[in-house]
Amino acid sequence: MNTPRKFAEETVLLHAGRHPEDNYGIVNPPVYHTSTVLFRSVEELLETRVDRASGAFEKFTYGREGTPTTRALEDAVTALEGGYRAVVTSCGLGAIAASLTAFLNAGDHLLIVDSVYGPARHFCEDFLSRFGVEVTFFDPLIGGEIAGLFRGNTKVVYMESPCSLTFEMVDVPAVVAACRPRGIVTIIDNTWASPLCFKPLALGVDVSLHAATKYISGHSDLMLGIAVCREDAFIPVKKTASASGYCGGPDDVYMALRGLRTLALRMKRHQESATRIARWLQQRPEVARVMYPALPDDPGHAIWKRDFKGASGLFGVVLKECSAAQLAAMLDHMDLFKLGYSWGGFESLAVPTYPATLRSASPWTEPGPALRLHAGLEDPEDLIRDLEAGFARLGDAA
């Protein structure tokens, strides 16, 4: 966009990262399939080496470093998040790994929220710890009291809000306020909210991560991650991602960029459907509680309302105690809520979850089974009928 005018975010979403004037007037950026980039002279080749050494990463040098298609996606998501620059990686976990290892060395201390995305937890416990990084998990409700966990070697605090599986809201501004005077880097997984519904960089967070596999793509057909950085954080993350080989494939990058254009419409529908279904579930006799911070009676609603502009279609449900056979009877025969990992696509999904197996600092004590539901783009009344039939099967299996 070549004008300084301030546009609505929905408009920026459609135009950011596109430069038709540079591509023969073609609306969408072309897909660049390449490993090798050719140079016209030794002088030009050496200039690109200087560019990489300085950390500018402005020129295209090799496929792993990115292409104009990659840059278009990075620029578009950066514009939405209000960041400095972004780094595309091969998947969401790649963005997590690159961002953590960019700021951690042997002997450093990492604080990470206890209710974190399971693969991120395993990366910290099984990988970082082997290389001498001390890992401590903290209660997601700790807020500014996190300062009591700081050590002299604490270098990074890693957050998710809302949290995976259990959907607690982290008081991000309070955590950042405790970290910044001490020079502690803050990283957050912002996949649940998408770049539209939460702006963690505006609250002082250093790196905002997305599994672009999910809402940015929106179609359950690619693997991609992206780390949106403040200026001081960009070079460490970019250098680490490049050196680790976390590069996104050209077709996946293009498809994520195409999916991004409809994000505002999709997120609105996801939230509307999730809210409708969550309220219906609260009235069901089989349900102990619903975990969705957009609901006014959710424990994290005040923080969500203060910091977020919207919600997604992902939420949790705790059922009243029932047998494994009853739960299977409910979930095995759903027409629309299919069993499957990931989320953020157009389709609805359901999986049983086991939060107690992924906690160490804040125990999970709910006696009944838990579910994670993703409200897709189907008619919400059809989704409710699907759940209603599932509950009937649960009851019949008693």
Automatic annotation (TrEMBL):
Keyword Ion transport: no
Pfam families for this protein: Cys_Met_Meta_PP
Entries under InterPro entries matching the protein: Cys/Met-Metab_PyrdxlP-dep_enz, Cys_b_lyase_bac, Cys_met_metab_PP, PyrdxlP-dep_Trfase, PyrdxlP-dep_Trfase_major, PyrdxlP-dep_Trfase_small
SUPFAM superfamilies (UniProt xref): PLP-dependent transferases
Catalytic activities: L,L-cystathionine + H2O = L-homocysteine + pyruvate + NH4(+); an S-substituted L-cysteine + H2O = a thiol + pyruvate + NH4(+)
Residues with PTM N6-(pyridoxal phosphate)lysine: 214
CDD domains: CGS_like
Keyword Phosphoprotein: no
Pathway it works in: Amino-acid biosynthesis; L-methionine biosynthesis via de novo pathway; L-homocysteine from L-cystathionine: step 1/1
Biological process (GO), any one: L-cysteine catabolic process to pyruvate
Keyword field: Lyase, Pyridoxal phosphate
Cofactor annotation: pyridoxal 5'-phosphate
GO molecular function, one term: pyridoxal phosphate binding
Coiled coil: none
Family from the record: Belongs to the trans-sulfuration enzymes family.
PANTHER family: CYSTATHIONINE BETA-LYASE-RELATED
Name of this chain's protein: Cystathionine beta-lyase
Organism: Telmatospirillum siberiense
